[in-house]
Write a structure and sequence with these properties.
With 190 residues, the chain is an alpha+beta fold. It has four helices and seven strands; from the N terminus they run E-H-E-E-E-H-H-H-E-E-E. It has two domains: 5-107, Double Stranded RNA Binding Domain (2-Layer Sandwich); 145-186, Sigma 54 modulation/S30EA ribosomal protein, C-terminal domain (SHC Adaptor Protein, 2-Layer Sandwich). 33% of the residues lie in helices and 27% in strands.
Protein backbone atom coordinates (compact mmCIF):
# COMPACT_ATOMS: atom_id res chain seq x y z
CA UNK A 1 0.00 0.00 0.00
CA UNK A 2 1.34 3.42 -0.86
CA UNK A 3 0.72 6.60 1.05
CA UNK A 4 -1.56 9.26 -0.39
CA UNK A 5 0.65 12.27 -1.02
CA UNK A 6 -0.52 15.88 -1.02
CA UNK A 7 1.71 18.21 -3.06
CA UNK A 8 1.76 22.00 -2.67
CA UNK A 9 3.85 24.50 -4.61
CA UNK A 10 4.92 28.02 -3.75
CA UNK A 11 6.39 30.34 -6.39
CA UNK A 12 6.57 27.44 -8.82
CA UNK A 13 4.26 25.35 -10.95
CA UNK A 14 3.70 21.70 -10.04
CA UNK A 15 4.26 19.92 -13.34
CA UNK A 16 3.20 16.35 -14.06
CA UNK A 17 6.86 15.34 -13.90
CA UNK A 18 7.30 16.78 -10.41
CA UNK A 19 3.98 15.33 -9.25
CA UNK A 20 4.80 11.83 -10.52
CA UNK A 21 8.32 11.96 -9.06
CA UNK A 22 7.07 13.08 -5.64
CA UNK A 23 4.30 10.48 -5.57
CA UNK A 24 6.73 7.70 -6.53
CA UNK A 25 9.44 8.65 -4.00
CA UNK A 26 7.34 9.74 -1.01
CA UNK A 27 4.66 7.12 -1.55
CA UNK A 28 7.16 4.39 -0.66
CA UNK A 29 7.87 5.75 2.83
CA UNK A 30 5.24 3.49 4.36
CA UNK A 31 7.61 0.59 3.64
CA UNK A 32 9.86 2.03 6.35
CA UNK A 33 7.11 3.05 8.79
CA UNK A 34 3.66 1.51 8.60
CA UNK A 35 0.87 3.67 9.96
CA UNK A 36 1.59 6.84 8.00
CA UNK A 37 -1.79 8.52 7.65
CA UNK A 38 -0.79 11.62 5.70
CA UNK A 39 2.20 12.77 3.67
CA UNK A 40 2.50 16.39 2.62
CA UNK A 41 5.18 17.69 0.29
CA UNK A 42 5.81 21.42 -0.12
CA UNK A 43 8.04 22.47 -2.99
CA UNK A 44 9.08 26.07 -3.40
CA UNK A 45 11.29 28.40 -5.34
CA UNK A 46 12.77 31.06 -3.05
CA UNK A 47 14.11 34.05 -4.91
CA UNK A 48 15.55 35.58 -1.74
CA UNK A 49 17.91 32.69 -0.94
CA UNK A 50 21.47 33.82 -0.27
CA UNK A 51 22.92 31.26 -2.63
CA UNK A 52 21.61 30.22 -6.04
CA UNK A 53 22.18 26.59 -5.02
CA UNK A 54 19.62 26.96 -2.19
CA UNK A 55 16.65 28.28 -4.14
CA UNK A 56 14.77 25.03 -4.72
CA UNK A 57 13.21 23.84 -1.43
CA UNK A 58 11.52 20.51 -0.72
CA UNK A 59 9.82 19.90 2.62
CA UNK A 60 8.25 16.55 3.52
CA UNK A 61 5.90 16.14 6.49
CA UNK A 62 4.45 12.79 7.46
CA UNK A 63 1.80 12.26 10.11
CA UNK A 64 0.52 9.17 11.81
CA UNK A 65 -0.95 8.15 15.11
CA UNK A 66 1.38 9.64 17.71
CA UNK A 67 4.06 11.06 15.43
CA UNK A 68 4.87 13.91 13.08
CA UNK A 69 8.17 13.83 11.19
CA UNK A 70 9.49 16.60 8.95
CA UNK A 71 12.48 16.97 6.64
CA UNK A 72 13.45 20.02 4.59
CA UNK A 73 16.25 20.29 2.07
CA UNK A 74 17.51 22.84 -0.44
CA UNK A 75 19.35 22.41 -3.72
CA UNK A 76 19.78 24.02 -7.13
CA UNK A 77 17.40 21.42 -8.66
CA UNK A 78 14.01 20.48 -7.22
CA UNK A 79 14.55 16.78 -7.94
CA UNK A 80 17.87 16.82 -6.07
CA UNK A 81 16.21 18.61 -3.13
CA UNK A 82 13.46 15.97 -3.09
CA UNK A 83 15.98 13.10 -3.16
CA UNK A 84 17.95 14.55 -0.26
CA UNK A 85 14.76 15.26 1.72
CA UNK A 86 13.52 11.67 1.20
CA UNK A 87 16.89 10.31 2.36
CA UNK A 88 16.76 12.52 5.44
CA UNK A 89 13.19 11.42 6.14
CA UNK A 90 14.24 7.76 5.95
CA UNK A 91 16.98 8.44 8.55
CA UNK A 92 14.44 10.21 10.78
CA UNK A 93 12.07 7.25 10.47
CA UNK A 94 14.86 4.85 11.46
CA UNK A 95 15.71 7.07 14.45
CA UNK A 96 12.04 7.25 15.44
CA UNK A 97 11.59 3.49 15.11
CA UNK A 98 14.73 2.94 17.16
CA UNK A 99 13.45 5.11 19.98
CA UNK A 100 9.97 3.67 19.87
CA UNK A 101 10.50 -0.02 19.22
CA UNK A 102 13.94 -0.69 20.72
CA UNK A 103 12.95 0.48 24.19
CA UNK A 104 15.30 0.12 27.11
CA UNK A 105 14.52 -3.45 28.15
CA UNK A 106 17.87 -4.72 26.89
CA UNK A 107 19.71 -4.38 30.20
CA UNK A 108 22.02 -1.59 29.02
CA UNK A 109 22.78 1.36 31.25
CA UNK A 110 21.96 4.89 30.16
CA UNK A 111 25.65 5.69 29.61
CA UNK A 112 26.10 2.66 27.35
CA UNK A 113 23.01 3.63 25.37
CA UNK A 114 24.20 7.25 25.00
CA UNK A 115 27.59 6.03 23.73
CA UNK A 116 25.83 4.03 21.01
CA UNK A 117 23.76 7.06 20.04
CA UNK A 118 26.87 9.28 19.90
CA UNK A 119 28.63 6.71 17.71
CA UNK A 120 25.68 6.59 15.31
CA UNK A 121 25.61 10.40 15.14
CA UNK A 122 29.35 10.46 14.41
CA UNK A 123 28.92 7.87 11.65
CA UNK A 124 26.03 9.82 10.13
CA UNK A 125 27.58 13.27 10.13
CA UNK A 126 31.29 12.54 10.46
CA UNK A 127 31.48 14.53 13.69
CA UNK A 128 29.77 14.84 17.05
CA UNK A 129 26.38 16.54 16.69
CA UNK A 130 25.42 19.68 14.79
CA UNK A 131 27.93 22.48 14.40
CA UNK A 132 27.11 26.11 15.11
CA UNK A 133 28.37 27.80 11.97
CA UNK A 134 27.59 31.38 12.95
CA UNK A 135 26.91 33.38 16.09
CA UNK A 136 25.32 36.80 16.36
CA UNK A 137 24.93 39.21 19.23
CA UNK A 138 22.55 42.10 19.35
CA UNK A 139 20.99 44.41 21.88
CA UNK A 140 17.39 43.62 22.84
CA UNK A 141 15.42 46.83 22.75
CA UNK A 142 12.09 47.09 24.58
CA UNK A 143 9.19 47.29 22.11
CA UNK A 144 5.63 46.13 21.80
CA UNK A 145 4.41 43.59 19.26
CA UNK A 146 3.46 46.14 16.58
CA UNK A 147 6.89 47.78 16.75
CA UNK A 148 8.48 44.33 16.53
CA UNK A 149 6.56 43.57 13.32
CA UNK A 150 7.72 46.89 11.83
CA UNK A 151 11.33 46.23 12.87
CA UNK A 152 11.13 42.71 11.46
CA UNK A 153 10.01 44.04 8.08
CA UNK A 154 12.52 46.91 8.08
CA UNK A 155 15.48 44.73 9.08
CA UNK A 156 14.77 42.18 6.34
CA UNK A 157 14.41 39.30 8.79
CA UNK A 158 11.43 37.70 7.08
CA UNK A 159 11.23 34.55 9.21
CA UNK A 160 11.65 35.64 12.82
CA UNK A 161 12.53 38.52 15.13
CA UNK A 162 13.64 38.43 18.79
CA UNK A 163 12.76 41.33 21.11
CA UNK A 164 12.12 42.28 24.74
CA UNK A 165 8.42 42.88 25.42
CA UNK A 166 7.92 45.22 28.41
CA UNK A 167 4.21 44.30 28.54
CA UNK A 168 4.94 40.63 29.26
CA UNK A 169 8.32 41.45 30.86
CA UNK A 170 10.10 38.79 28.84
CA UNK A 171 11.93 37.91 25.67
CA UNK A 172 9.54 37.19 22.79
CA UNK A 173 10.07 35.65 19.37
CA UNK A 174 7.92 36.93 16.54
CA UNK A 175 7.72 34.69 13.49
CA UNK A 176 5.97 34.73 10.15
CA UNK A 177 3.62 31.85 9.44
CA UNK A 178 3.11 30.22 6.04
CA UNK A 179 -0.30 31.81 5.63
CA UNK A 180 1.21 35.33 5.96
CA UNK A 181 0.09 35.94 9.54
CA UNK A 182 2.43 36.27 12.50
CA UNK A 183 2.99 34.07 15.52
CA UNK A 184 4.42 35.09 18.88
CA UNK A 185 6.38 32.93 21.29
CA UNK A 186 6.46 34.29 24.84
CA UNK A 187 9.27 32.82 26.91
CA UNK A 188 9.24 31.96 30.59
CA UNK A 189 12.06 30.89 32.87
CA UNK A 190 11.13 27.60 34.47
Amino acid sequence: MTVEVQIYGRNMEITDGISNYVTKKVGKLDRFLPGIEEARVDVAYEKSARSATDRQVAQITIRGKGFILRAEERADDIFAALDIAVDRMQRQIERYKGKRYRGRGDGKTTSEESELIEESIEEESGELGPVIARRKRFLLLPMDEREAIEQMILSGHENFFVFYNPNSQGVNVLYKRRDGTYGLIETEIG
